[in-house]
Each structure stands twice: as C-alpha cells, then as structure tokens.
Amino acid sequence: MLEYVISKIEELLQAARDNYGVNPVVFLVIYLVCVPFFYYSLFRTLRALAKKIGKEVMLWSAIFLCANVAPFLYVLFFGRNIPWWVYIIIAILIGQAVLSLVMKLRRMPAAGAKGR
C-alpha cells in the first residue's frame, strides 16, 4: 500500500514538471527556506512597531512580504501552461499577504497608543 502511494506521488510530481515546468520539490524548498525569515521578520516588525522605529518597520515588513510571496513568484516566473485559475489563486494569496501585513501594521500603533 505504501509503495502504491509513493508511486502515485512520484507520478504527480513528474506530471507537474512535465506539464507546467514547475518542480514541486523546488517550490517546497523555497517555501521551507522562507519560514524562518517569515517568523523572524514578523517578530522584528512587531518589535519595531512597539519601539516606533519607522525605517525598521518598513524594512522588516518588506522582508515579511517577500518571505510570504517567494514560493508563488517561483510558479509565476518559471511555470508554463498553467491554467488561468492558478494565476487567480496566486494573486489572491499575494493579495492576502499584502492585506495581512497592512492590517498588522495598522493595528499595532493603535494598540501601543492605548497602553499609554
């Protein structure tokens, strides 16, 4: 049974490589490499917001955003023959990352002002 599941996964991975030019292993590696940057930049953004250091907020927010969208940019730049709905999903994910970042940036200064 396990061999059957592994063979099916290998077939799906090969189909993604052949049909779309996207290597799912590369996508996963990019995704996993971005995880530490995601959490560290989130931590540093929140810390900079608490200390009200505007330049650091912008820097770490940009790093946070890049860590969010990097795997999807790989698909956008290197994928081919990708169905139109995948582009919509990627645009929604990137938009959600930007919106999430903006909401966090707007919420934190208000929370800091209430604490005074």
Provide the residue-averaged pLDDT.
85
Oligomer: single chain
| Helical/strand content category | mainly alpha
The whole-angstrom Rg is 19 Å
Helix content: over 70%
Could you list some keywords that capture this structure?
116 residues; mainly alpha; disordered C terminus
What does this structure look like?
- With 116 residues, this protein is mainly α.
- The chain has one domain.
- The protein contains 4 helices and no strands.
- Helix 2 runs antiparallel to helix 3, helix 2 runs parallel beside helix 4 and helix 3 packs antiparallel against helix 4 (84-114).
- The longest helix has 31 residues, at 84-114.
- The termini are far apart.
Which secondary structure elements does this structure contain, and how are they paired or packed?
Blueprint: H1 2-20, H2 24-51, H3 54-78, H4 84-114
